[in-house]
Amino acid sequence: TSRETVMRAEKRPFTLFSIVFSGEDRSWMIQKRFREFVELNETLKKRFADRKEELPELPPKTTLLGKTPLDDRQAGIERYLNGLLKIPVIGESYVFRKFIFEEAKDLPSAHRNTTEFKGGENSQRKKQHSIESDA
Questions:
Q1: Which regions of the chain does DSSP assign to beta strands (E)?
Q2: Is 10 left (phi over 0), alpha (psi -120 to 50) or beta?
Q3: Which of 14, 23, 78, 96 has an alpha carbon 20 to 30 Å from 119's alpha carbon atom?
Q4: Residue 99: enclosing H or E segment and its boundaries?
């Protein structure tokens, strides 16, 4: 994952996390705000209530000491997604697949050569090496 801070006129800035996925014949990237991961997590907990204990933990947005540092949150998102991909019924579910394919941007095939994370039988997730942040 990488991240960037988005500035909007007269609104608070927010961070977008860019996640690159690689399959057998294509690579794609999605950009999501942290709250979208929270929404996915809540949906999965409801949809897979019988498997709730298997779901990986989403990193917190805040701790007792304040906001979770973005580097820690980014690493936690990577662990969370890898954990979801290791549970076939979740990784293949409509809810999860919609999350990773909705608004996806196809990437050139050169991105397939740096796969770092594996998940599921037919899909692989990789870490994008450049990290952008204005924070």
A1: 2-8, 11-23, 27-33, 62-63, 66-67, 105-107, 117-119, 123-126
A2: left
A3: 14
A4: helix 94-101
Phi and psi, residue 13, nearest 5°: -70, 155
**Chain segment 25-60, per-residue pLDDT in tens:** 888 888 999 999 999 999 999 999 999 899 999 998
Contact indicator for 6, 135 with CB cutoff of 8 Å: no
Q: At what angle do helices 34-47 and 94-101 cross, to 10 degrees?
A: 160
pLDDT digits (tens, 9 = 90+) for 63-110: 777 777 888 888 999 999 999 999 999 999 999 999 998 887 888 764
Which residue reads 């709250």 in tokens? Answer: 35
Q: What angle do CA 67, 64, 33 make, to 5 degrees?
A: 30
- Phi, psi of 35, rounded to the nearest 5 degrees: -60, -25
Q: What are phi and psi of 94, to 5 degrees?
A: -60, -45
